[in-house]
């Protein structure tokens, strides 16, 4: 079971409270987690990554285990703590400043 | 008694303002989609309870919302609850998927446009500026987007297809203005469903006579002395807004970057009607619901100072289709006012007398229940207003 924490605006859009839990088959990567998330909540498609290229949107960040994983390969394995559900995968709206 | 519903898009959410036909007491409902930029909301003329909304965010991109109950509840057209599945059981979350057409079947439409440095630049989708529901079909809606293109949905906003012939109308010469290269105005001819006008900043007006398959520029008579090296160029004018009265679809009115103009031949040619306006720079323009020669603009000081001249917020009305203008000031701030009124932020109802409404970047929404003779704020402290649309309900 994978735990995903969404930013407030996306929780509202997906109509969920708190963490989202997902079952991911096979290797647990950014891509497989986001595929599972978008399959469950199709209204999130295009809000985290581009609909066509699947590139992360510029002002979205991925954190886990106190690490910024935003620039890691989409197909790299996420930490074991995320794969086992001990730690959540955090999807974060980047700080805007100003 | 008739009712009025005003749909307000702001920088931080949407608001729905309702009143009875007297238009004295208003209920303010919102924010809907709090914190998101709501570029535009508009109701279907064929089904007033069907509303479409463009919800955008610099973080999370574009979302399309739809209401089928007049704004009480909203859903992404294909999102929640999950109503549809593809052949493999995959949910079809594509209501915010705006993909420029590049298919050989449609002639491999252009893929680049003019960029600031003179080079060609790829079209990149950024947001939906304007949603224009069909006059007759609640499930058909057009979307004007940045980078400039026109999309159409025929399934209530669930999926979108580009009318790519538009970009064949010299799209390689289009270039962004300071606000981005946006298709912001869509006007349908009620007497001819195959004729549509659109306007793009900074490219100009284009017209189709075959329901969007082919398009041609409609900018003859526009002069952009300070914006273009050739003031009479066929392409490149920064048109801010065009408006039409449904009883006279061949007459169009335009607020350009500078200049107010009209066309009496369906956009074949334009002539200036700025007349005695204190400044002919501005953004919105609209037409009285019952008097096709009565038009409204909000003069703004200049292209570099986007606020009213002399700190006085004045709507100008012409009852002669232009040239002769009168200032409408009763109830509007006449000192220390430095707000702007954006291109989609003015609308009229169809009651008698005609109601006129506009919103400001200072968060005020003003209403006049007497065709502009006097004004009063419906609400004063919303986020910056991007758009105002009005529905007159039975």
Could you please describe the fold and organization of this structure?
The complex is a heterodimer of chains A (98) and B (394). Chain A has 98 residues and is an alpha+beta fold. Chain A is built from 3 helices and 5 strands; from the N terminus they run βαβαββαβ. A 5-stranded mixed β-sheet of chain A has the order 2-1-5-3-4, with helices on one face. The longest helix of chain A has 11 residues, at 30-40. Chain A is globular, with a radius of gyration of 12 Å. Chain B is mostly beta strands. Chain B has one domain (3-82, 93-393): 7 Propeller (Methylamine Dehydrogenase, Chain H). In chain B, 0% of the residues lie in helices and 38% in strands. Chain B has strands at residues 3-10, 13-20, 27-32, 37-44, 47-57, 61-67, 112-114, 120-122, 127-133, 141-146, 149-153, 161-162, 182-188, 196-201, 204-208, 216-217, 239-244, 252-256, 260-263, 271-272, 285-287, 295-297, 315-318, 326-328, 346-348, 356-359, 365-368, 376-379, 385-393. In chain B, strands 3-2-1-29 form a 4-stranded antiparallel β-sheet, with no helix packed on it. In chain B, strand 9 (127-133) and strand 10 form a beta hairpin. The termini of chain B are close together. Chain A binds chain B through residues 7-10, 13-15, 38-39, 41-48, 51-52, 57, 59-60, 93-94, 96, and chain B through 35-36, 57-63, 76, 78-80, 82, 90-97, 99.
Set down the secondary structure blueprint.
The complex is a heterodimer of chains A (98) and B (394).
Chain A: E1 2-5, H1 8-14, E2 20-22, H2 30-40, E3 60-64, E4 67-68, H3 80-83, E5 89-93
Chain B: E1 3-10, E2 13-20, E3 27-32, E4 37-44, E5 47-57, E6 61-67, E7 112-114, E8 120-122, E9 127-133, E10 141-146, E11 149-153, E12 161-162, E13 182-188, E14 196-201, E15 204-208, E16 216-217, E17 239-244, E18 252-256, E19 260-263, E20 271-272, E21 285-287, E22 295-297, E23 315-318, E24 326-328, E25 346-348, E26 356-359, E27 365-368, E28 376-379, E29 385-393
Antiparallel strand pairs in B: 1-2, 1-29, 2-3, 4-5, 5-6, 7-8, 9-10, 10-11, 11-12, 13-14, 14-15, 15-16, 17-18, 18-19, 19-20, 21-22, 22-23, 23-24, 25-26, 26-27, 27-28
